Amino acid sequence: MFSEKIVDNLTKSSWIRAMFEEGEKLRKIYGADKVFDFSIGNPDPEPPEVTKDTLKRLVLEDKPKMHGYMPNAGYPDVREKVAIQISKETNVPLTMKNIVMTCGAGAALNVALKAILNPGEEVIVFAPFFVEYLSYIDNNGGKGVIVKSNKDTFEPDINALEASITPKTKAVIVNTPNNPTGVVYSESILKNMAEVLKKKEKEFNTTIFVISDEPYRKVVYDNIKLPSALKIFENSIMVDSFSKSLSLPGERIGYIAVSPYIKDVDLLIDAIVYCNRVLGFVNAPALFQKVIAESVDTSVDINIYKERRDLLYNSLIKMGYSCIKPQGAFYLFPKAFIEDDIEFKNRALKYNLLLVPGSGFYCPGYFRISYCVSLKTIENSLPAFEALAKEFI
Amino acid sequence: MFSEKIVDNLTKSSWIRAMFEEGEKLRKIYGADKVFDFSIGNPDPEPPEVTKDTLKRLVLEDKPKMHGYMPNAGYPDVREKVAIQISKETNVPLTMKNIVMTCGAGAALNVALKAILNPGEEVIVFAPFFVEYLSYIDNNGGKGVIVKSNKDTFEPDINALEASITPKTKAVIVNTPNNPTGVVYSESILKNMAEVLKKKEKEFNTTIFVISDEPYRKVVYDNIKLPSALKIFENSIMVDSFSKSLSLPGERIGYIAVSPYIKDVDLLIDAIVYCNRVLGFVNAPALFQKVIAESVDTSVDINIYKERRDLLYNSLIKMGYSCIKPQGAFYLFPKAFIEDDIEFKNRALKYNLLLVPGSGFYCPGYFRISYCVSLKTIENSLPAFEALAKEFI
């Protein structure tokens, strides 16, 4: 009676719902403060003061038509500010024209894929990955191709990538800092990737786009500099949102930055703006376009996340967990002590620990910890993590 | 190099862009006040005071996590308020569960279609219609089937509808008050439609959904009561946005109301919420969900639009134009004096009149006037309309 594919997917994804319901059940039995919910990536620091102040100022100013339609690509002055900032950060010369404002990164990814994909063309993703990439690719007529990462670094396996590229490969989705591993891809790995792509483009006489999904780009630690996909890949489409950098995930505000080095870039931008419209997004929310325009050079206090990472990472390592020390995002992706990560997730539940099994990211045998919880909650959760570890070692 | 279909569509839709550019050119030459732009449906009355006041209050209150994620279906308290209001207006018993908040009606339509369509299933639209319906249907794997309206009333031709229904018919999109005609479908025509659908559902042993796109539902004149699709059609999915009722089109806020009478309605609602997520909308913008929750029972001053309709309609009729007097939305859809409506649009341009040809709505020989302009602009435009008419009569 309904879409068979969607109903089928609903059944498959029901373990996420089951977990959420499990959490709700535990909270009711034990109280919210006794349940350690590391499952959800819902940024908890408040937005920066400048962001809040801009919002207040704009709402009190109450300019006429401030909630009206603007061009589908977004307000020109906002696009201009984003372009200037991203040019400064990446050293790639962008103008207003290269920026299309979107309803967050989810919208941006769908719009970018719709603009480039012909039926059956392939899009490569590196496991582990944010599982909705596969839906986004499928929504827009493409075929997802999963390429493994190097388990020692959780960076893309470049040989595996090369072997996976076919004449139908239209794009590669790169996500760094990565969800779920928190890993920041090194400049050298991205440059190797660029070489392989160039070689294959020549071999097959094709164009392969790199869609660089960077919602965690401001959430990096240890004074590292995030290598810029826009700088490294000629055919790059950068996707960003302010969900994490400004803690505005509910407001659905982000943008696409299109590399000026793409051949026929104006046509691609036209296609992207058109897709923003016909996919039903129409435009990024008006008020929050103006809000983020004053915050493009700022972010929430990243130190809040860093303290949590340090406490959690150091504690888990001491307890015997094995985990790559990530330099970005707000996730840890440790190895489960048993291969069956669903079983491991269930064992953790006994200690009121809510963890997401790696299978949810096409990487079984691991689990994701999202540290969008207070330092206090992390401290309180440590005995639970320890007791869980002791079951296995 | 990009999506061939999208690039092809871009070329086809370029006359809209050409028109926009034409307008910009005219404004530069003659000044904005000398150009009469009736092309864009961008509501110009300001939002109601209660809406603005709620926005101010919420922003100044600045509650923690107010810009964070909420369930994909929207805030429960907001869904509750919408459910209560729509139940009251339609006499259909809705609960929070039946309401899914969306990024405007464009999102809602895509989400609803995605949730029900299997590949190649057919969706009927009545010409003239908002042309993006065809994109929305195509985005989600369906096939658009165009059924004509009765030219005397611009209501659906029920015989033509009956003849167009096949075993593959999955949905009918109904849009009343209508864009581009402004016509409000009568209760009797909708009841006839419901009978035909029931008969065909029995004949083919299928379910045919009525997707009722109602963004203009509050913009009705002459004290008429808008017949409710939710009440008349058992298998109905109502789609609404606050773009027109509260003049918030740039903020992308709307909802889906699912009829409680649909078989397996809970599964459909799950599918809709899932599609809201995987299509990349994720959730309706957080702040504006809370804003509209306090304004579900109000609207902008409809009298503003009614005055414009009356002035324009009465003047055009006196000049010799032929036009159905519409009882809703903010459009007139008069007959062009010549069959070639593109040529007619070009002739109008000579008088600095920007009109949209009916071909843009799959109804050649007519043109659309959007009266989202001040009464003063309408007054100033009348000599131009008159001079244009005199060319033909």
CATH topology of the largest domain in chain A: the name is Aspartate Aminotransferase, domain 2
- How many E strands of chain A? 13
**How many helical elements of chain A?**
14
Q: Can you tell me the CATH architecture of the largest domain in chain A?
A: 3-Layer(aba) Sandwich
The CATH superfamily of the largest domain in chain A is identified as Type I PLP-dependent aspartate aminotransferase-like (Major domain)
Distance between the termini of chain A: 50 Å
Query: On the 0-100 scale, what is the average pLDDT of chain A?
Result: 96
Which structural class should the secondary elements of chain A be placed in? Answer: alpha/beta
**Residue share in β-strands of chain A:** 5-15%
CATH hierarchy class name of the largest domain in chain A: Alpha Beta
**Biggest beta sheet summary of chain A:** 8 strands, mixed
Q: Report the uncertain regions of chain A.
A: none
Largest interface: A-B, 73 and 73 residues
Give the strand line-up of the largest sheet of chain A. 2-9-8-7-6-3-4-5
The helix content of chain A, as a percent range, equals 40-55%
What's the domain count of chain A?
Answer: 2
Give Rg of chain A in angstroms.
Answer: 21 Å
Shape of chain A: globular
The SSE order of chain A reads: HHEHHEHEHEEHEHEHEEHHHEHEEEH
The quaternary structure here is homodimer
Pfam families (chains A, B): Aminotran_1_2
Keywords (chains A, B): Aminotransferase, Transferase
Cofactor (chains A, B): pyridoxal 5'-phosphate
Organism (chains A, B): Clostridium muellerianum
